[in-house]
Amino acid sequence: MPRVLVPLAEGLEELEAVTIIDLLRRGEVEVVTAALGAREVTASHGTVLVADTDLDAVVDEQFDMVVLPGGLPGADHLDQDPRVRALLQRHHAAGAYTAAICAAPKALASLGLLDERRATHYPGALNAADFPRAELVDAPVVIDGKVVTGRGPGTAMDFALELLELLQGSECRAQVETGLTRAA
Predict the structure, then answer these.
(1) Domains of the chain: which residue ranges?
(2) Which UniProt keywords apply (predicted)?
(3) Which of 13, 16, 162, 165 is catalytic?
(4) Does residue 16 carry a catalytic annotation?
(5) Which of 124, 145, 150, 161 is most buried per CB count within 10 Å?
(6) Is residue 121 annotated as part of the catalytic site, yes or no?
(7) pLDDT tens for each residue of 46-80
(8) Partners of 152 in the β-ladder
(9) pTM
(10) What letters, b where the CB count within 10 A reaches 16 and e where it falls short, cover 20-33?
């Protein structure tokens, strides 16, 4: 069973975080949510999420994918956290997937993980002049090698389904997607 880490930072975009966590778990992916600080994390619109653990407890573990939800100031907290930065660099170097949506691709860009890659982001979250080696495009989801980026809350479901397909295959994605549109 694939393992995915979703770090949770104060001020994250709850729609993105919950959609990613929910759809991956529906697809039988082991998702570990880890708070940067206290396990109760207040999202950008006041929703309180309770993380499975704190980041220190899992920071040295290997995952198949690390996924950063966006939102502000959550994405800035992720970008500035030295544990998250080291984790992203280590997973990228090991050939594992790194993924970020909305404003969170900034954390990938600031580490050079978007250099020579196509990526998307929430409009205004990244300035092309600041990251001239990245090809920033206006698309809902971009997969370039082992780096996946998504535009924002409105594309969270597409983003999560793409992640699921990468981890579990197209048949699993189709089953989860069908389950979302059919009456229970």
Answers:
(1) 3-173
(2) Repeat
(3) 16
(4) yes
(5) 150
(6) yes
(7) 999 999 999 999 999 999 999 999 999 999 999 99
(8) none
(9) 0.96
(10) bbebbebbebebbb
